[in-house]
Design a protein that fits this description.
By secondary structure, the protein is of the alpha+beta class. The chain is built from 2 helices and 7 strands. Helix 1 runs antiparallel to helix 2. It is elongated, with a radius of gyration of 17 Å.
Length: 138
């Protein structure tokens, strides 16, 4: 799974509750590396294990000839309290890392495979993510 090598602060503040209300992405909204890409249509927080599951599907689909680029990185920590713990007593322990994604952000890019293989791999990778996605080409 993707995690930062070093973090300055172990726990962050939550920021805005609904990333969908922030607006569309201006950075990372165009295809830069590959020929086909998976684009986010909703704003959401994607956990590192979800990114890893989508990456595994894409790497299986692309085989040895394909090249994959992951355009998001989960660097924002989220906390979680244990089950059946009463309120109060401070903030919960670190549970993992998420990537805050805005609508229009390119999530994955792929190149070196045929269009049919790329579209099928990106479609399968999109099912592993908790948001609506769209396959685009250069």
């Amino acid at each position: 799974m993707l995690v930062p090598k070093k973090v300055k602060f172990r726990k962050w503040q939550t920021m805005r509750k609904n990333p969908a209300k922030v607006g569309t992405a201006s950075r990372g909204a165009t295809i830069s590396f590959g020929s086909y890409a998976l684009k986010a249509l909703q704003g959401m927080r994607i956990r590192s294990n979800q990114v890893e599951a989508a990456r595994k599907v894409l790497s299986r689909a692309s085989g040895k000839t394909g090249k994959i680029w992951i355009r998001i990185f989960p660097d924002m920590p989220y906390t979680q309290k244990p089950a059946e713990v009463k309120l109060g007593k401070g903030k919960g322990d670190l549970a993992g890392y998420v990537a805050a994604v805005k609508p229009g952000t390119i999530l994955f890019e792929i190149d070196g495979v045929t269009e049919a293989i790329a579209r099928e791999g990106l479609r399968k990778a999109g099912t592993k993510l908790p948001l609506k996605t769209k396959i685009i080409s250069r």
